[in-house]
Write a structure and sequence with these properties.
The chain is α+β, with helices and mostly antiparallel strands and about 400 residues long. It has helices spanning about 30-40, 165, 195-200, 210, 255-260, 340-370, 385-400, and strands at about 10, 20, 45-50, 55-65, 70-75, 80-85, 100, 105, 115, 120, 140-145, 150-155, 180-190, 230-235, 240-245, 290-300, 305, 310-320, 325-335, 375-380.
Length: about 400
Amino acid sequence: MNEITQTQFFGDFDRLRSRIDILERLKPEFYAQEVEQIFRRAWLPVASMTDLPSNNCYVVAEVPPLKTSLVVARGDDGKVRAFYNVCRHRGARLVKHPSGCRKALTCGFHGWTYATDGRLIGVTDKTQFADLDPEQHGLIPVHTEVWEDFVFVNFDPKPQGTLQQWLGKFHDQYKGFFSNRQRIASYRIAVESNWNVAINSFSEGYHAAYVHRKTVPDYQGGKQNPQRHRAYLEITEHHGRYSAQANPNRKVTPVEEIAYGHGRPLYPSFPPFSEDGLPLPPGVNASRNPNWGFDVAEVFPVLIWIIGAHWHANLWFWPTAADKTDVHVEFFAYKAETVGDALAHAYFRTRLREVFREDVGTMEQVTSALKSGAMQNIMLSRQEFLLQQHYAVADEMLRSRP
């Protein structure tokens, strides 16, 4: 790198705009269009294979913008399928427990029973139904595909492309990275924020020196990068990602020395990168920067990854109204094998949670201020290309077929 870090930009930036009409996006009628044109048509990540460790395991996944609950199940044949969480008798919610493993799912209303592949296999008092055909009354499926540790669904009756096409070059560049990890934290919070504003809070690093100046004041930047520019930034057809540099002059706190003294370092400590010492798939630290800290990627429309050497975080941003968003956060790290590993996990969990809280406060303040109507547009810099990409993809979907 040069003495002062210069961002390496990759992708087609000609279709992006630096001025975005944000006030329009806060209107309920605009949100209604987003629900139908974006969330009902995009491939949406709804579950983790971590929750489906063996056949006949299931997890309930909520999709708030569509007011939909799904049962994501790994059948006796090993195939993962998603179904509306609705009993075919009279529409009761079929599964109420968030996750589990069982060979059959039974409705608590009248006892109808389904296999984990969706088949209706049991009807109580069946002789009283004059024309019931069990083969035609299995659970209602949703298009489902599995990629790495993620289960994606698509609610469009005829999806415009496969999941591989939707992910583009991301599809083949993270092989194995999200596997064999331990979930060490899971949080869910309802925020008073527009979903675009909420997810935008995590797709740029411009804010870090200011919003996080007390919690992690020097984990990025340093003499070579005083403005904390991204080392690498790329946009694809639907998504985007960047790599952030670590600060080589960061001062390790005494508590961090203890916490990471007997376990692999996690946020905000970043081990130096080398192909031999820290092998990573091509999508992680794509520029192979030796002073790499972490990556951030937006998988449009709802998912943010924050990726470090031995950990990652999944952040979902599910809108529930034009000015309300359900944020779900999960932290994953290497599996703890020692007391030192467990201590490292606890410290990592606490530090990242405190940083996340600062971001939540910002997204709510921004939404509140914008709702005043004082300003129509927001202005975005080159360091905020991922935000520009977010709005470009959203607008393309809003303009396309009804």
